[in-house]
Design goal:
The protein is of the alpha+beta class. The protein has helices at about 25-35, 40-50, 55-70, 125-129; strands at about 15-20, 80-100, 105-120.
């Protein structure tokens, strides 16, 4: 499982999906990403389907994209995929002002995030164990 000289730095048994500028703070997105880390791909999709968090549907869409990339672009077996990485990064911060009393203003920060999901095809031996 050595890393080839790939521009993306992925191994031969990995596929990824990247979503940029999601309108949610990185802290909140990381809570949802933590739910699916190291889970089998189908179980992770089920977990996100029934999550109450607003952002879970967008994370599910990104995960399904990573699974589709694995199947169509890398010819990996969908039934043996595991979410190996779910990385959350900070994006831009929109700053707005909210009028307060006595002519003052308070800053309102609207955070954006990046999400990168990497799925890995596990070998048959780990499934039998």
């Amino acid at each position: 499982m050595s890393k080839p000289n790939h521009p993306r730095g992925l191994a031969d048994n990995e596929a990824q999906a990247i979503v940029s500028n999601i309108r949610v703070s990185p802290r909140k997105l990381n809570l949802v990403a933590g739910l699916i880390r190291n889970l089998p791909a189908q179980q992770a999709v089920a977990t996100l389907t029934f999550s109450k968090r607003r952002i879970a549907q967008q994370v599910k869409k990104a995960l399904e994209s990573a699974i589709a990339n694995a199947e169509n672009n890398h010819q990996l077996d969908v039934d043996r995929l595991v979410v190996s990485r779910a990385e959350v990064g900070r994006s831009v911060v929109m700053r707005r002002f909210h009028a307060r009393g006595r002519g003052r203003a308070a800053r309102v920060e609207k955070w954006f995030s990046h999400l990168k999901i990497v799925v890995t095809e596990r070998a048959q031996e780990s499934e039998a164990a």
